[in-house]
Design a protein that fits this description.
Rossmann fold; globular; alpha/beta; homodimer
Chain lengths: 202, 202
């Protein structure tokens, strides 16, 4: 039985595409992306999913209370018997209801070396702070912003002539690489969580 | 004329020793460590300085107001015509008076990838948070804790079986390397500060 991945996105979802490529190439073995859900009409990621023959659903979030909305999303995910939920540029905080419903089954990728620079515009924050290294973080999602236990991180240099765009491009390449690797680790179950630490097991 | 470095420490001062080695080996050219000041009696770093023939001064800080104490230290540094002040395990916050007196002439090294894990026990903080990469940061010192513009950072992996001790040892090796490199950059004047960013120049 293939493990079933659900993706939540709000925009272009380049990390969704990277995951889809990794599934197709066997870098995430015995898995499939079963459904892509967007909270926004017209999210380019939905069109890209359709062109790959992956099922999609648009559930507009506008005007809905967080939990009311999340119950709709959870129902679709359950209907599709999803094993793992991957956020890919999903611009919403999850309700405690949603997080509690899928314990340690929701992953996110964030474009910084957490706990540095949580929230929006991490690359701009990094440049303004003047760090010499930046990177990205795959973590389990809890009810706090960009705060759950960390599965993988990858580092890139910050160069003197970097702009937000050039730094973003360098980080994004690493995002695509480590998100797939983290999904593989989690789906294979080869980890344990001690406190906040995610440790590898055989 | 050699550039004159003053070191402030409170304990063993392993970063002081690394700087002294780098000066002796020519990795920090045209420089000398002119004075090592400790705020604590019996700091092992003082003995080590003496064994290298470097001048030392113990100025006990106990019971003195921050600025009152810092004026005594500043007077000794000025007496020795110091070009650059390097903190090496100096367990005191500097007063605004002291920071203003030596603008962009005070360096510190911190055992984390700032802005993550400022303050004490950074390695323990990193392990408890569960980050997968750690490291160290050389920065200019301002009146805030572990907060001035960053000159260099270096990254090390955090391993699943790391203890505070093993992680500390891995980071310390990088501290010794990049502190010397940062001192060289600053003494050669081959940098500019834009906002919070320290950029290299020729």
């Amino acid at each position: 039985m293939k493990k079933r991945i659900g993706v939540l996105l709000s925009g272009r979802g380049s990390n969704f595409e990277a995951l889809a490529e990794s599934v197709a190439a066997g870098r995430i073995p015995n898995a499939e992306i079963s459904i892509v859900i967007s909270n926004r009409e017209g999210a380019p990621g939905i069109e890209r999913a359709e062109s790959r023959g992956i099922g999609t659903r648009v559930i507009p979030s506008k005007g809905l209370e967080r939990e009311t909305y999340d119950r709709q999303v959870a129902a679709v995910l359950e209907e599709h018997k999803i094993d793992l939920i991957c956020l890919a540029g999903y611009m919403r905080l999850l309700s405690p209801y949603f997080v509690a419903k899928f314990p340690n089954r929701i992953l996110n990728i964030h474009p910084s070396l957490l706990p540095s620079f949580p929230g929006l515009e991490s690359q701009r924050q990094a440049l303004e702070y003047g760090v010499k290294v930046a990177g990205c973080t795959v973590h389990f999602v809890d009810e706090n912003l960009d705060a759950g236990p960390i599965i993988l991180q990858s580092v890139v240099p910050v160069k003197d002539d970097d702009t937000e765009e050039s730094l973003n491009a360098r980080i994004l390449k690493e995002e695509h690489r480590i998100y797939s690797e983290a999904v593989r680790i989690v789906l294979e179950g080869k980890y344990k969580i001690e406190g906040r630490r995610v440790l590898r097991t055989n």
